[in-house]
Write a structure and sequence with these properties.
By secondary structure, this protein is mainly alpha-helical. It has helices at residues 6-13, 15-22, 67-70, 76-87, 92-111, 115-128, 130-143, 147-158, 171-181, 183-193, 197-214, 224-243, 247-258, 274-295, 300-312, 316-324, 332-343, 347-360, 369-381, 385-399, 402-414, 418-435, 444-452, 456-466, 470-480, 485-499, 505-525, 528-541, 546-554, and strands at residues 28-34, 37-43, 47-53, 61-64. Strands 1-2-3-4 form a four-stranded antiparallel β-sheet. Helix 23 (444-452) runs antiparallel to helix 24 (456-466). The chain starts with 5 loop residues before the first helix and ends with a helix.
Length: 557
C-alpha cells in the first residue's frame, strides 16, 4: 500500500471531496492491482475510470476520468478507490500476483499465435470495438504516410453529427464526443513521430480550424474542448519545431489564428514560435500584427498581440503608441503609459502623460483613483506640495468621498494648509446636505469625514441637523457615551426598539450589545434601577424568543 492512510487521502482531496468520497466506496468495482498502482471503475453521474499511483517517496497521486479529475484534482472517486484499497490491504498481494499471472498468460498465448490467427483476432476485436478500429486505422495511415487518409479520419473524429441532437451536442453526450475528438491529437503526434512533421503541421492547423468550427455546437461545461485545443496546439508547435515550415506562411497563420474569436480554445502564443519562425518569421509576425492593429486599433486581441510583441523587443515607443490609440475615458490608459515610461527611465515623459490624463478627463468623478494617487505621489516626491493639494482638492470636489477627503487631508497636512482646506471641504459637504432636503440621511458624507477627523461633537451636531444612518448614530453614541451618556442612551434605546421586531441569532447578538451599552449609560447617569425595569419589561415582551433568552443569560442580563 506504500503507507497509504486516510490522512493522506484527506490532505490530497480536501475535506469536502474526502467526505463525499466516503459515500462512493460501495460504487467501486473491478479493482485491479499492479506494481505501485491500483485501478478501478466507479459509478457516479457516469462510469469513471480511476487510477491510484502509490509512490513511497512522493506519496500517492492519481487520475480520474471524471470532469473534476480531468482538471488535475484529486477527486472523490480517487478517495473511494483509496479507501477500498485500504479495506482490502491484506488481499492486495494476492490480487497483484493474480494480475501478473494473467498478463504473463496473455503474453504467452499471443506469442504462440500464428500471424494469420493474430490478424483474425485483431479483426474480430476491431469489429466489436469501433474505437479500437479507428485508432488502428490512424496508426496505419500515419505509418504509410497517407495524409489524405489521416485528414479524412480527423474530419470524422471532429464531426459532431453522431453525437448531436438538433445540431447541438448536449452535456450528456459531450464527454463521448470529447473522447473521440481527443484521438486527433494522438494521430497528429504519431505522424510527426513517423518523420512526417511537415504534413503534421498542416493537419494540426486544419484540426484546430475544425474544432473551432464545432465549439459553439457543444456544451463544453467541463472544458474538454479546451483540453483538446491545448493538445492540438502543443502537437502543432512540436511539428513546427521539427519541420521548420515556411516562416512567412507560419507567421501569417499565427496572427490570423490569434485574432480569431475561437483563439481561446488553443491559447496559442505566437511568441512561443520564435525558434521555428527564425528572424525572418519574427519580422513577418511583427509586420502582420502591425497591419492587423492598424486596421483595428481598438480591438483587444490586436492591441494585446501588438503590445506583447513590442515588449518582447523592448520597443517602448510602440507600446505607448498601442495604448495611445485607444485611451480610456477614466485615465487608466494614461497611467499604463506613465508606468511603462517610468520603467524605461523616461520619468519626465511619464509625468507629462499622467498630467495629460487629468487634463483630458472631463469629469474627475470618474477618474481612475490610481492615476490621481500616482500623480500626487510624483508631485510630493518633487516637493510640488501645492500642486499635490490642488489635485487632491479637485478630486475631492468631484468625488465627495471619505477616501478622497483622507487623501486631501494627508496632502494638505504635508503642505501645512489643512485648516483652510478642511474648511473648504466641509463647506462643500454642508452645501450638499442643504441641497438634499428630501433625504433624511443627507448628512452621512459630512458625518463620515467629521468622525474620521475625530471631531465627535461636530459630527453629532451634523447628524442632528441633517440626519444620518443608524450605523453612524451607533458610532456617535459609542464615542459619546463617556461624555454625553443621556444622548447616547436615547440613541441606544431607539435602535433597540427596531431590533426587538427582528428574529435570528444575529439580531439577538446585536440587541444584547445594545443592552450592555444601555446598562453602561444608566450606570453613568446613576439610574441603574431604570435599566433593571427596562430589562424586565423587555424579557416579558420577548419571552417567546427562546434563543434570545439564552443569549441574554449568557451575557448575564
Amino acid at each position: 500500500m506504500g503507507g497509504l492512510t486516510e490522512a493522506q487521502l484527506r490532505a490530497l482531496a480536501g475535506a469536502r471531496s474526502f467526505e463525499r468520497g466516503l459515500g462512493y466506496v460501495d460504487a467501486v468495482s473491478d479493482m485491479e492491482v499492479g506494481d505501485n498502482r491500483i485501478s478501478a471503475s466507479i459509478r457516479g453521474t457516469g462510469r469513471y475510470e480511476a487510477v491510484l499511483v502509490l509512490g513511497e517517496r512522493r506519496g500517492p497521486s492519481g487520475t480520474c476520468s471524471c470532469p473534476y479529475g480531468q482538471e488535475g484534482n484529486f477527486c472523490k472517486h480517487l478517495v473511494a478507490l483509496g479507501l477500498t484499497a485500504m479495506a482490502h490491504e491484506a488481499d492486495l498481494p494476492r490480487r497483484r500476483e493474480s494480475a501478473r499471472e494473467r498478463t504473463r498468460g496473455l503474453d504467452t498465448w499471443l506469442s504462440g499465435l500464428s500471424q494469420e490467427r493474430l490478424l483474425t483476432l485483431v479483426r474480430d476485436e476491431m469489429t466489436a470495438d469501433r474505437r479500437l478500429r479507428h485508432r488502428l486505422e490512424l496508426r496505419a495511415a500515419s505509418a504509410r504516410g497517407d495524409v489524405d487518409g489521416i485528414r479524412s479520419r480527423l474530419r470524422e473524429l471532429l464531426d459532431i453529427s453522431p453525437f448531436a441532437r438538433y445540431g447541438y451536442v448536449e452535456y450528456a453526450d459531450a464527454r463521448a464526443y470529447a473522447d473521440q475528438a481527443g484521438q486527433a491529437v494522438s494521430a497528429i503526434r504519431s505522424l510527426t513521430d513517423s518523420g512526417r512533421a511537415a504534413d503534421a503541421t498542416v493537419l494540426a492547423r486544419e484540426a484546430i480550424g475544425l474544432l473551432a468550427g464545432m465549439a459553439d455546437s457543444v456544451d463544453d461545461s467541463d472544458g474538454a474542448l479546451g483540453r483538446i485545443g491545448t493538445g492540438l496546439a502543443a502537437a502543432h508547435h512540436d511539428a513546427c519545431r521539427r519541420a521548420h515550415p515556411d516562416p512567412e506562411e507560419l507567421a501569417r497563420w499565427l496572427v490570423t489564428h490569434t485574432l480569431d474569436d475561437a483563439a481561446h480554445l488553443t491559447d496559442i502564443d505566437p511568441l512561443a514560435y520564435e525558434q521555428p519562425l527564425g528572424e525572418r518569421g519574427m519580422a513577418a509576425l511583427r509586420r502582420y500584427a502591425d497591419d492587423a492593429w492598424r486596421a483595428n486599433r481598438t480591438g483587444w486581441a490586436e492591441k494585446d498581440l501588438m503590445r506583447r510583441l513590442a515588449e518582447s523587443g523592448r520597443d517602448i515607443d510602440t507600446v505607448i503608441a498601442v495604448h495611445a490609440a485607444d485611451l480610456a475615458p477614466d485615465g487608466r490608459t494614461h497611467l499604463l503609459v506613465a508606468r511603462e515610461l517610468d520603467t524605461a527611465g523616461r520619468t519626465a515623459e511619464a509625468l507629462e502623460w499622467a498630467e495629460r490624463g487629468i487634463r483630458e478627463i472631463e469629469d474627475l468623478a470618474i477618474v481612475d483613483t490610481a492615476l490621481v494617487d500616482y500623480l500626487a505621489d510624483r508631485y510630493t516626491r518633487a516637493a510640488r506640495l501645492a500642486d499635490a493639494v490642488t489635485l487632491r482638492r479637485d478630486h475631492f470636489a468631484a468625488r465627495r468621498s471619505l477616501l478622497a477627503y483622507q487623501c486631501l487631508r494627508a496632502a494638505a497636512e504635508a503642505a501645512t494648509c489643512w485648516r483652510a482646506e478642511r474648511a473648504k471641504a466641509l463647506a462643500l459637504l454642508r452645501a450638499d446636505a442643504d441641497a438634499e432636503r428630501a433625504d433624511t440621511c443627507r448628512g452621512r458624507p459630512l458625518v463620515d469625514v467629521l468622525l474620521d477627523d475625530q471631531d465627535t461633537e461636530a459630527a453629532w451636531r451634523a447628524a442632528d441637523e441633517y440626519g444620518t444612518h443608524d450605523d453612524q448614530w451607533l458610532t456617535l453614541a459609542d464615542r459619546s457615551c463617556p461624555t454625553r451618556p443621556a444622548d447616547a442612551l436615547a440613541v441606544y434605546l431607539r435602535l433597540a426598539v427596531r431590533l426587538t421586531r427582528e428574529t435570528g441569532n444575529r439580531a439577538y447578538e446585536q440587541l444584547v450589545a445594545l443592552l450592555l451599552s444601555i446598562r453602561d449609560c444608566h450606570r453613568r447617569l446613576g439610574t441603574p434601577d431604570d435599566f433593571t425595569a427596562y430589562l424586565t419589561d423587555l424579557r416579558a415582551t420577548q419571552k417567546r424568543k427562546r434563543n434570545l433568552m439564552r443569549v441574554l443569560e449568557r451575557h448575564g442580563l
